Amino acid sequence: MFLENTVNHKEQFGWIEVICGSMFSGKTEELIRRLKRAQFAQQKVEIFKPSIDVRYDDEMVVSHNKNEIRSTPVPAAANIAILAQGCDVVGIDEAQFFDDEIVKICSDLANQGIRVIVAGLDMDFKGNPFGPMPALMTTAEYVTKVHAVCTRTGNLAHYSFRKNNNDKLVMLGETEEYEPLSRAAYFNAIKRTNE
Q: One of 29, 94, 101, 141 is an active-site residue; which one?
């Protein structure tokens, strides 16, 4: 459970919040909710996403529920450090697509007094830790793991099962390409795929 940080005005450090889980679990929805609250509080907010993510929009961060917030697409994590100067809050969506430098950048921003909110897939379609997400989770003060609902069992799902045979690690997609599965459903689906 995420608890709001109490403010100590003598401490000039920010913190890192990570929102993780499978596809269709509400990660981006939760990111947008937190960022809009900060905007409502008149805090200076900047949102970033990897420039390769153009599923819904080139510039907007958009949830599967079509909730959206304006963002700055960047090709690499290094761009975030330059563009985030002077912010109170920095939001980063689809962090798993960034290079490992994102971990240092988030830490540096937090050390400058910025609240950093990061959302991303914690596991790839093979069930392995995805990109820099494990390191972000270990360095974050707060980690929120959200779950989808398994399309086959109705239980909590935390695996993103790829429905086709494409073996590329990064493949943008939606419900046609992926489905959220529980551990049991994922295990059975992988077993059938390998037969």
A: 94
**46 noted as active-site residue:** no
The Cα–Cα gap between 109 and 78 comes to 12
Instruction: State the amino acid at position 4 in one-letter form.
Output: E
What single letter denotes the amino acid at residue 103?
V
Structure tokens given for 86: 């002077």
Task: Name residue 98's amino acid.
Answer: F
Taking the CB of residue 186, how many other CB atoms lie within 10 A of it?
Answer: 23
pLDDT one digit per residue (tens) for the chain, 195 residues: 455 555 555 667 899 999 999 999 999 899 999 999 999 999 999 999 888 765 666 566 665 666 666 778 899 999 999 999 899 999 999 999 999 999 999 999 999 999 999 999 999 999 999 999 999 999 999 999 999 999 999 999 999 998 887 777 766 666 678 899 999 999 999 988 877
CA dist 87 and 75 (Å) reads 20
